[in-house]
Amino acid sequence: SDRYGRKKIYILSLVIFILPILILYASYSWIFLLPVAILIGASDGISGTSGSTLITESVSKRKRATGWSVVQSIGTLTTMATVPIGGLIIEKLGLINGFKFSLLVSVVTMVIGIFLVAIFLKETLKKQIKHKIKFKIRDSIEFLKKIPRKIKFYFLFIGFIFFAISLTMPFQILYVVDVVGVNTFQFGLLIAIQTTVSALFLVVGGKLSDIHSRKNVMLLSAFLLFVTAILFILSRNFAHLVFVYVLFGISMLGFSSIIP
Predict the structure, then answer these.
(1) String of b and e for 48-77 (b: at least 16 CB within 10 Å)?
(2) pLDDT tens digits, residue range 196-215?
(3) Which of 117, 153, 224, 259 lies at a CB distance of 3.0 to 4.6 Å from 251, suitable for a disulfide?
(4) pTM for this structure?
């Protein structure tokens, strides 16, 4: 993105993301999940750098956290509609046909999204790198050595946070249904509650980060995540989980401080 532009590389990542969707549609064995995982990882890696840079550079430095939080909130709010719609599609068409239909809808929406990015987003790269960029492992190691110590601790901090969240996500529905005893409909309500609260507090966190300290907001978010994890384990009924998921949504306020 430093050489060819943020916008072009971001669009490339969106095009790449369509490929695993098409592979999933045509797949008939778990072996197809390997190229799907590789392509999704490649797309996420490319969009994570070019897309976030494009967004943050499109907003003034004083309001970057707020701008980033608004983008995240919009993405979070859409899940409130897509989850029940997806459930309705599967209920009407069945699991396999419903899933394949959802994949086709995803392709259509991705294509529309690519055209919207191409038309409305402006390139933010002002000075392109003209020389050919070479990727060498030794150069990467030297680059990592030159990173300031506080930035290394920042990477470590963010890494632990995302590792902890990603580690437990796949098991949440199993735990709340099999151990706590809520039904799948109640679990859907919990996700809707958490999504709504997250969307609100992402914007709140963004504004706090722009006004006060990004570091303090992130530390508050990490502390709330720790409390949420403890309370989640101690939950014994649906009412307890409602409180936990509301608190989990509030803890997302620090995630608007990560990129800016």
Answers:
(1) ebbbbbbbbbebeeeebbbbbbbbbbeebb
(2) 888 788 777 777 777 767 77
(3) 224
(4) 0.64
